[in-house]
Amino acid sequence: MTYIPLSGLSLRDIEYVVAVDDLRNFSRAAERCGVSQGGLSEQVRKLEALLGVVLFERSRRHVAPTPDGARLIGMGREVLAAARAMIEAARVRTGPLEGLLRIGVIATLGPYYVPNLLPLLRRNYPQLQLRLTDSLTDIMLRMLRHDELDIVLAALPVSGEGFHSVPLFSEPFLAAFPAEHALAGRKNLTMPDLKGPDLLLLEDGHCLRDQALALCGMSSNHEPERLAASLEMLWHMIGAGEGYSLIPRLALRNRGEWEGLITVQPIPAASRTIGLVWRASDPRGAAFADFATCLRNNTPEGCTALPHFPAKTCMTLEPDMPHRD
């Protein structure tokens, strides 16, 4: 067996290869890694020469890992995860969260929760460098599993092994109707009242879609004629008179311009649980639990904080600091 000195193998080169595999594009991979495309390409070629393996099939329009490349890139991901775990294990000894924190937020929560969250984090965790991402739950959990995110704010429960989650708060759902809809003026609405052809849904992949179907007692295979790609488009479709839907409480903030077009009605016992999720193997678990307590102690108005652990480091926002509408 040919001896290959480890001095010729760097974590940076592995990061380059993983970036190319993630993005399937050398130019975007170079941008993500903060280097020139020529520099990244040269390092990838040097790594291929060191390993004696072609990692990528390349053409003008196509970049994809070879079979050997896919196997080795998977091992490279494990190496990077182990290296990051070593760094984070050392950081745990220094105290609470600090440095880069990569936060994922589901798309139906992020735009409505994050703006009020940031002042809280700046006050309680000034040493953090935040990197925010929003997407669908499954994508976020895959990124979390592959150590591309540190924590995820999502609707619980989440599926998959190797995660630890804690509840933060319960967020009510409200029914939003076109102002002229027959159900808009009905009092004491219940979930069965919404089981009808006018129910609008988000596209497949949004957990909010599954929650709406489950609460209404409808099959997960139900497919309305029109689907919304985002919560904002769903709201616009309601305002246009196309149908009605369930809307999370936080997404109803600052909707005054829709008065006269949309009527909102409360629905008893209809809600979702928002929680914090991280890898069970992450050595920062205790710090993340404390971070969750900080978020829970500042539950947004209209939502209900859920049972929690005693706070260790979190300060609540002062009355003169904007947090709630």
TrEMBL record:
SUPFAM superfamilies: Periplasmic binding protein-like II, Winged helix' DNA-binding domain. Keywords: Activator, DNA-binding, Transcription, Transcription regulation. It holds the Pfam family HTH_1. Residues 9-66 form the HTH lysR-type domain. The keyword Chloroplast does not apply. InterPro entries: LysR_HTH_N, LysR_subst-bd, WH-like_DNA-bd_sf, WH_DNA-bd_sf. It comes from the Bacteria. Belongs to the LysR transcriptional regulatory family. This is Hydrogen peroxide-inducible genes activator. It comes from Komagataeibacter melomenusus.
